Amino acid sequence: MLRRIIALLAMLGASFVVVVAMAPAANADGCDVDEETGEVVCEDEEDGGGNGGNGGDGGDTGGSSTCNYNGREIPCTGPGGSVWSSLHECWIGPSAGELGEDLQPPAGQTKEDGAWHVCYFPPPGSSWEYTWVQTGEVVTIDPVVLAQRAIASMDLDPIQIGIVPESGPNRVGLVGLPVWMWVDSPTDDTFGPITASASEGSVSVSATASVSSIVWDMGDGTTVTCTGKGTPYADHYGKQDSPTCGHRYEKMSTDQPDGAYQVTATSHWVVEWAGGGQSGTIEFDLTTDALPIRIGEAQVLT
Predict the structure, then answer these.
(1) Per residue in 153-178, pLDDT tens?
(2) I need a surface site. Which of 107, 204, 220, 292 has the fewest CB within 10 A?
(3) Strands 203-217 and 128-134
(4) Which residue intervals are annotated with compositional bias (Gly residues) in the record (predicted)?
């Protein structure tokens, strides 16, 4: 066993040709092989580079090559430059070479159909073993990672709030009168739809993102969920309710911090992606900064 491990470690230092497509740009510093036991040891990374399908709270969804394994992120490149395989759930390393000469191909396979390769398992679990990799099999980055990179490249932002009564020190709405909310000056990166793609090696993923709904927190303990961009207010509407997205305050805001209700709008983004033989949906939220809205009561003179 020790002879096999020593020979294996020697192979890691040499260049090798495998039937898998080697994915570029991955950090192998996080994983090492214990020379005595052959165990694969990976250090926890402070900066994984992905937001697990969030992507909307400032998390970095692109840049580094991280792959998914049992719900956690691991480097896409393992010991000796081995490449993560979602199919085999291990890092595929060099061909077994002479060490695999006495290993027979799986039933129904011949040596022309593939080769035995070193297969490193992430902890916890076994250290490594040989696995059969068929000729022409491609091992590349997880398509979900590329979908996250595509989302990051969109540079999405929260909406700009359009609201009447307006925000400002000299602006005051009245209790009981209709409040209108809408998306002010919508753009592709604040409301969608917007499409972007990302590629690595032979895998390319395209993603399209759009806002499916907006949840308005009115600051008075109520929320209003609206689909669509809403209807901008115009003077000729008078005291009509908004036909698409509105609210009415029942109390003055004088007892609120700074004497105003703090209104926020949370956009719910839905991203449909496809590529690398897979497809899926990623959802996340983006929330605006709070906007103060002052509400008072009309004074009746007698």
Answers:
(1) 999 999 999 999 999 888 999 999 99
(2) 107
(3) unpaired
(4) 49-62
